[in-house]
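Need a sequence for this fold. Nothing fancy.
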């Protein structure tokens, strides 16, 4: 018996505003582009920075919440799993590795201040919002993705 684990935990900043679309069946889906920075010491002993750019795919109500409250520069914590997709474009096979979000937690505001509160609610210092997936009635297939 083979045991496997597909779990991703990322903290980073959005590099652009969320892109919300709807599948032909009406299911909301949002793409978040995220930059995750890490630093390390090179062989020469100098500190080096490395940035990894990741596409996060968010479904259902969570996609709408992310689209409503997230903007470029906002820090987020994402928990999910890796998804591999491939498609044909201009006679060539293209592929990508993405993160399918199970949970997106909104961290501090872009300027490093407190997180912005939803309309009509006061902002608490250090407050964070969480957009969690609702139990999926039906798992959307790649065929439903309009892009």
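Here you go.
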């Amino acid at each position: 018996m083979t045991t496997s684990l597909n779990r991703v935990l990322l903290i980073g900043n959005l590099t652009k505003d969320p892109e919300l679309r709807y599948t032909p069946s009406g299911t909301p889906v949002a793409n978040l582009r995220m930059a995750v920075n890490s630093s390390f010491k090179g062989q020469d002993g100098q500190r080096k920075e490395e940035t990894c750019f990741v596409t996060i795919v968010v479904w259902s109500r969570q996609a709408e919440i992310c689209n409503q409250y997230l903007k470029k520069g906002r820090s987020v914590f994402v928990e999910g799993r890796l998804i591999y997709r491939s498609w044909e474009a201009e006679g060539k096979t293209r592929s990508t590795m993405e993160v399918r979000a199970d949970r997106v937690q909104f961290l501090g505001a872009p300027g490093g201040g407190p997180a912005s509160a939803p309309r009509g609610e006061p902002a608490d210092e250090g407050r964070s919002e969480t957009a969690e997936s609702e139990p999926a009635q039906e798992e959307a297939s790649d065929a439903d993705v309009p892009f």
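For context: DSSP finds one helix and seven strands in the chain.
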